C-alpha cells in the first residue's frame, strides 16, 4: 500500500510539474496565442519589405490555427520546421535541443521561409528575430544569407523594449544599474548577426578554402561588418569596430 | 530499510520544489517563467570552469548554481523596482534575502540567459557580509577598450558618474559575467543559442568592470 502511494505521487509529480530541460522534445504541442492586426500569417506569402514592421508592444505571437488555414506556400517539411520554431519561441526555452538538431542543413526554401518569418515579426520581438539571425547565420552558404544578415545590421535601431519606434527615458542612478541588459537586448538581432559573421569568417580562414565562391562570400561578410561600423546603434558600432580590428589582426597571422 | 529508502527517494523527488517562496501577488505567468528559467540552470553541465568561476560558484553544475541562488534568496516578491525596464531588484535594507521581480520578466523579449544573468546579479546583492557588493561609480568620461567614449542608445544618456560599475571581479557585474562567460565557453549541454547569448551578454557586462587589475584578472581567466 505504501509503495502504491509513492507510485501515485511519482505519476502526479510528472503530470503537474513541467520541466523545460534538455529532454523537452514534444513536437506535438499546440500553441495558443494572440494575433494582432499587423502580425499577419507568415506562411501565406513572402513580405516584399524585409525591414518593415510597425507593430506596437502588444503580444507578438501568432495563432497556430490561423496559420494552418493559410499555409500553402511551403513544403510539408518547411511547414513542420516553422511550427517547431513557433513552439520553441513560445516556450521561451532557449536551450531546446531542437534548435540545434532540427535547424541544420537548411534548404533554400527553409531559409526563405525563415527570412519571411523574420520580416513578419514585430520589431519588439527581439529574441525571436535574433534567433532567426542565428539559424541563418549558422548556415551561411550564399549571398542571399549574407544579404539577409546585412539587412539586419542596417535596420534602424530599436529604441525601447516596449516600442521600438519610441525612445524611452534614459536610465540614471539606480535605473542605470538595473538596465544593464537592456541595450544588448535592444540590439540583439544585430549582435546575433555579427556573432555569426565572425564565426563564418574564422571558419573560412581556418579551412583555407581557395574556392572563388568562398572568397567572394568572405568579402561580402567583411563588407557587412564594415558597414555595421556606421550603425545608428552605438553598441552595434562598437562591436562591429572591435570585430573589424580583431579580424584584421587574425588575417595577418 | 526498504521503506526508508522509498520514503527518502520520494521526498527527494518531491523536493524539486524550490527552497524560496513566491509571494501570492506575483502573476502566475511570471512565477512559471522564473521557475522554468531556474530549472534550466539546474540542468547545466560543463567540462571545466575558470579559476574565478570556481572561486565564486564552483564547477559548472546545475546543483552548484541552484545552491548559490537558494542560499542567497529565500523569498521572491512583486515590485516595480523603480525603473520602467527593470526585471528584478533587491532592497537589502528592507529585506536582505528577498528578490523582487517585475512584469518585465516576461513582458519584454529578453533571451533566457539574459533574464538569468539579471537574477544572479541581483542574488549577489543579498550578501550582507560582503556589503551587498555595492557598485562603484563609472568613470567620467567612460571609455571603452579603444579609448572611445561609451555612448548608449538613449539620447544624451551616459553611464559616466552613475553607480553602475564594479571595481572587483567578484561584484554583481563581475560575478554574473564570469558565470555567463563560463557557460559560453564550457557548457557541454547548452544550445548554440544559449552559448552565443551568454557570450554576448558577458562581453557587454565586462565593460562595467573598471578597475585595471580586476579587468586584467578576468582577461587572464577567460579571454
What does this structure look like?
The complex is a heterodimer of chains A (253) and B (223). Chain A is mainly alpha-helical and 253 residues long. Chain A has one domain. The radius of gyration of chain A is 21 Å and the shape is globular. The termini of chain A are far apart. The relative contact order of chain A is 0.10. Chain B is mainly alpha-helical and 223 residues long. Chain B has one domain. Chain B is built from nine helices and four strands, in the order H-E-H-H-H-E-E-E-H-H-H-H-H. About 4% of the residues of chain B have low confidence. At the A-B interface, helix 1, helix 6, helix 8, helix 9 and helix 10 of A face helix 1, helix 2, helix 5, helix 6 and helix 8 of B.
Summarize the structure.
The complex is a heterodimer of chains A (253) and B (223). Chain A has helices at 2-16, 64-70, 76-91, 98-101, 108-120, 126-137, 143-154, 174-178, 182-186, 188-207, 212-228, 234-251.
What is the global morphology of chain B?
A: globular
**N-to-C order of helices and strands of chain B:** HEHHHEEEHHHHH
Question: Helix and strand succession of chain A?
Answer: HHHHHHHHHHHH
Give me the count of strands of chain B.
4
Tell me about the biggest sheet of chain B? 4 strands, mixed
**Count of spatially separate domains of chain B:** 1
Helix percent band of chain A:
55-70%
Low-confidence spans of chain B: 8-16
Total of DSSP H or I helical runs spanning 4+ residues of chain B: 9
Query: Please, what is the oligomeric state?
Result: heterodimer
**Structural category of chain A:** mainly alpha
List unreliable stretches of 5+ residues of chain A. 2-59, 61-70
Structural domain count of chain A: 1
* Class from helix and strand fractions of chain B: mainly alpha
Average of per-residue pLDDT values of chain A: 77
